């Protein structure tokens, strides 16, 4: 890859200027074009060209996500109609998708320019929410308003009625999303190599009370029943609808909808295994540090470990 165009996707609130300045300096040395969403133009140097949000992915060869997993998911959604590789720069606390730390960025960009990377394909959920088309790379969730009853909804798979839910929340997730809301609700961890969809109720009161694992060919239809509490609909943690007491969500699995840059797949796998092993440890950060090998503790130095979940 001789010349590349990089599109920058910024964390919505955190100070990303040190990372952006590093990228801008590198781009100037290598004559690489940089773009950013027009609404973020005040957060980047003048050398970064602002473009309309819908043109950012289309006009880029690679997207660089600066933030955590939430920022990465936003970058993947932005490119879902024309998937582009997304390189994640880690500013979050517990990222499963992001690839590099800020000190590693110049070397990572050199490898990106040289084409020395692989891409990891990710599936998404293509959802029809009351007539609106949305996509979710982690999960889509129906969540009750506190103090106003329960989510009450029926489940149909390929048109066949399976039963109903009465619960605090109802989460439909991809394998990547199985470590997020679905896991917190008691759902299983699904290998990223598996093509499946998981439906998990949180705090079920009656009806279906366990996770249902479905194949990629099956379509899911959730329908709110009369008397359901007002429901918020979250897509990858973002509220897209609030207060609905009727309506439906239709979900189908879409493979190969997103591409994530991997510079060292083995290192990424080892890091993810460590993060997964920490999820169920009810320990404080300083206690977690004592469990790490001595050489890794020295590398961490004074860096902050993720807070307990």
Task: Give a description of the structure.
- The structure is a single chain.
- The protein has 309 residues and is an alpha+beta fold.
- Helices cover 23% and strands 37% of the residues.
- The protein contains 8 helices and 18 strands.
- The protein has helices at 17-30, 53-56, 69-78, 105-114, 181-184, 265-278, 285-291, 294-300; strands at 5-10, 33-37, 49-51, 62-67, 85-90, 118-129, 132-136, 139-144, 151-157, 160-167, 169-173, 196-202, 206-207, 212-215, 220-224, 231-235, 238-244, 248-262.
- The strands form 2 sheets. Strands 1, 2, 3, 4, 5, 6, 7, 9, 10, 13, 15 and 18 form a 12-stranded mixed sheet that branches. The protein has a 6-stranded antiparallel sheet with strand order 14-12-11-8-16-17.
- The chain starts with a strand and ends in a 9-residue tail after the last helix.
Provide the descriptors you would attach to this structure in a database record.
309 residues, alpha+beta, 6-stranded antiparallel beta sheet, 8 helices
Short précis:
Helix content is 23%, strand content 37%.
Question: How would you summarize the topology of this molecule?
Answer:
Elements (H helix, E strand, L loop, with lengths): L4 E6 L6 H14 L2 E5 L11 E3 L1 H4 L5 E6 L1 H10 L6 E6 L14 H10 L3 E12 L2 E5 L2 E6 L6 E7 L2 E8 L1 E5 L7 H4 L11 E7 L3 E2 L4 E4 L4 E5 L6 E5 L2 E7 L3 E15 L2 H14 L6 H7 L2 H7 L9
Parallel strand pairs: 1-2, 1-4, 2-3, 4-5, 5-18
Antiparallel strand pairs: 6-7, 6-18, 8-11, 8-16, 9-10, 9-15, 10-13, 11-12, 12-14, 15-18, 16-17
